[in-house]
Design goal:
heterodimer, A: 280 residues, mainly alpha, flat, B: 445 residues, alpha/beta, Beta Polymerase, domain 2, 3 domains, four-stranded antiparallel β-sheet, 17 helices, 12 strands, elongated
């Protein structure tokens, strides 16, 4: 579905992406600022759009694939904007904005899907719960943070390869120093992990309220648990054994694949009670 | 006869517009023996400028003397006669035979001279392309000339334009961008690994000019502790004192590897001093924090296999040289952009410079009309309008002046804006003939 606000969001995302592309090629310091503020404009439009949807539907717009992707893109944009302010990672826009743009585009092109009238469970009852709202928002924020960590990991591997093999190419000049990429990836994972934990807890509490059990071995629950364990292991190793650099970068890329599998594959392939949220 | 402005802005009769001239020798045209023979120390420059200005046809002069180039930039009426005189006077001050310089000398006139000084100040003509020191040297050469009252309209304008061009080249091209010395290249690499270097600790093994230079650059980037290891401990203590660091013995190196971030090594040892195994073992203690080895020694001090340890990076002298070569060729590519900027600026400067010869004609025209108006008003105010009060007479004079200004405004603008030099000269010629300015030029002086 497309309306004025989502169109404006797409418009600003596209401009922002173009600005970051120019930044990548021309390396003019000012250009990334344009990219940043255009992304901010896009994010605001996107948030307004989602709020409008929430008001119109009377519940959080998280029950169709289209809505979910839209939420994912918007939260990634939000996490990136926050992170960029805190850590000054100009270069990340080159990676984050095209992804945000692509997800938003897909979400706009997908049909909205019929309003859900589930057998037995009343959508209003599901959606009104504060637990559920917290669950959905934190899960998407975690998703965004892990996406950025994955980007940091990819950049790290590229830059590390250039330095180690003494092949300084196109990216060597443009990418930030290794340590910065490493610590940015780490920060993203810490933030994502905190969100994921909160999301799992609220999800479990909500499941208890609705279905009478904290944990029901639903496929998506299982995969979320695996995701949590992977990132917990990564953080543990970093804190205890000083896992950093290349290995940490590979782990954060792998972790993100599991996240995406849980998010999309879990819904589309595995069935279970989350399936109803991603109907096309 | 034509007129010209000299360094004091006065109008003189000369046989044409002065030319901008540049004569000099540099590191490419002259061997160091010749350069040092004619080089001027800062305190010798005022006397040198005076002797150049003492030549009758020279109006303005600037003398640039560095270890790589000695150049004199001046304006003079008659290029072919003046240049040998300038060379003779400078050689005379240094008590050397001008014939020693002449084979190495280059000379540029007008646009070529302008282009040359732009190139020099931007670092395009330097031994190391894009080096920044030359800009400061040109600046101080200009300051000395100004203090000596040796510059005038043309060279003041030219030097200011030169500074603008050099700044533009620096900001708009990457000509001064990346490191072109081994030690700077090492520091730049360290920054690509660690980001900011403040607080990082450094270990210097051995000694040597390049290694010490690298450590000095690192210290300039506010690194934290500096450790110095040397076979002879006294030597280590001495070097450590220089960097406010700590002297350590060779035996301590494996322990130090567990916390130091950057290792600069330059010993005369025949074999490797740091092995892969040592680095691998140190990784646990340093919690896999990256470590960067700069191996400047030949034969090498660091086992190249250390580079295969995760989070350890080894650059030897050849690796650093290839970084430097890459950066130098990068600078040469950037020089193409710089040349475009210089060409543009030289054109715009020449347009201003050529507009200068309009000035004498305009002045002559104004003088002639003013003289006629003045004599006619005096006549009228003395006879037919004798009865007027003093204030009324002044009002009539003011009116006359206003009429002159209004009449001259359009022709003046037209002459100044005529686009090509050829066209301009034609109109100047017509103007002079129309108003019979040629024969008048004697009178207004």
């Amino acid at each position: 579905m497309i309306d004025l606000t989502s169109f404006a969001a797409l418009f600003f995302y596209t401009l922002s992406g173009a600005a970051y592309l120019v930044y990548l090629l021309a390396q003019r310091e000012k250009v990334h600022l344009y990219g940043y503020f255009l992304l901010l404009a896009g994010f605001i439009c996107h948030a307004v759009f989602l709020c409008g949807q929430a008001v119109m539907l009377g519940h959080l717009p998280a029950f169709t694939l289209s809505h979910n992707l839209s939420l994912a893109a918007c939260s990634t944009a939000g996490v990136f904007l926050l992170l960029n302010r805190r850590m000054n990672l100009k270069f990340f826009g080159v990676y984050a904005v095209p992804i945000i743009l692509a997800i938003t585009l897909v979400s706009v092109m997908l049909p909205e899907g019929a309003p859900y009238r589930g057998g037995g469970t009343d959508i209003k009852r599901i959606a009104d719960s504060a637990w559920l709202i917290t669950h959905v928002i934190t899960m998407f924020a975690a998703n965004g943070a892990f996406a950025l960590a994955c980007g940091a990991g990819i950049f790290y591997l590229v830059q590390e390869h250039a330095i180690k093999n003494k092949k300084r190419g196109f990216f060597y000049k443009r990418l930030p120093p290794l340590e910065l990429l490493d610590s940015a990836g780490y920060s993203c994972i810490v933030a994502g992990f905190a969100m994921l934990t909160l999301g799992l807890v609220t999800g479990a509490v909500y499941a208890e309220l609705v279905w009478g059990a904290f944990w029901r071995w639903d496929p998506k629950e299982v995969w979320s648990g695996i995701t949590w364990l992977v990132y917990a292991a990564l953080l543990h190793e970093r804190l205890v054994a000083g896992w950093r650099g290349r290995r940490a970068a590979i782990m954060s890329i792998a972790g993100f694949f599991i996240v995406e599998f849980t998010f999309l594959g879990g819904n589309l392939l595995l069935g279970g009670h989350h399936g109803v949220f991603t109907r096309v | 006869m034509n007129v010209n402005m000299d360094k004091n802005g006065q109008i003189h009769k000369t046989s044409g517009q002065p030319h901008i001239l540049l004569a000099g020798i540099n590191h490419e045209t002259a061997p160091v023996e010749v350069r040092e023979a004619i080089a001027f120390q800062e305190h010798e420059i005022p006397a040198a400028l005076d002797s150049v200005l003492a030549i009758r046809s020279v109006h303005e002069a600037i003398l640039l003397s560095t270890c790589n180039r000695i150049e004199v930039l001046f304006t003079a009426d008659d290029p072919s006669d003046t240049v040998p005189l300038v060379i003779k006077s400078l050689a005379g001050l240094k008590k050397i035979d001008p014939k020693r310089i002449e084979p190495h000398l280059y000379m540029h006139e007008d646009k070529n001279a302008v282009r040359h000084i732009f190139r020099v100040a931007s670092g395009l003509d330097s031994m190391v392309m894009g080096e920044p020191q030359i800009f400061g040297q040109v600046k101080s050469a200009y300051r000395l000339a100004v203090e000596q009252n040796a510059t005038g309209v043309i060279l003041n304008r030219l030097t200011h334009k030169t500074f603008l061009v050099a700044k533009r080249v620096r900001t708009e091209t990457g000509i001064g961008g990346s490191a072109v010395s081994i030690s700077y290249a090492a520091v730049e690499l360290a920054k690509k690994i660690f980001g900011a270097l403040d607080g990082k600790s450094v270990l210097l093994i051995g000694a040597g000019e390049m290694a010490e230079l690298a450590v000095e650059h690192l210290a300039g980037n506010r690194v934290g502790s500096i450790h110095v290891a040397n076979r002879t401990f006294e030597h280590a203590v001495e070097l450590a004192g220089k960097y406010n660091g700590r002297a350590v013995s060779f035996e301590e190196i494996p322990d130090i590897l567990s916390f130091v971030d950057i290792v600069v090594s330059s010993t005369g040892a025949p074999g490797f001093i740091i092995s892969r195994e040592q680095v691998r073992r140190s990784m646990r203690g340093r919690r896999n924090n990256p470590i960067f080895f700069i191996d400047i020694a030949v034969p090498r001090d660091i086992d190249p296999d250390v580079n295969r340890v995760a989070n350890a990076y080894v650059y030897d002298i050849d690796d650093l040289k290839s970084v430097v070569d890459e950066n130098i060729s990068q600078r040469h590519r950037e020089a193409v952009k710089a040349k475009r900027i210089i060409e543009e600026s030289a054109l715009s400067f020449m347009a201003w410079y050529e507009s200068l010869d309009v000035v004498p004609t305009v002045v002559a025209l104004r003088n002639k009309i003013a003289r006629i108006a003045e004599s006619e008003t005096r006549k009228t105010l003395g006879s037919a309008l004798k009865h007027l009060a003093q204030e009324d007479k002044q009002a009539v004079q003011r009116m006359t002046e206003a009429i002159i200004n209004k009449i001259l405004h359009d022709p003046t603008t037209f002459l100044k804006n005529s686009s090509s030099r050829k066209e301009k000269h034609r109109y100047l010629d017509i103007t002079k003939r129309l108003f019979k300015l040629e024969s008048d030029s004697q009178k207004y002086h």
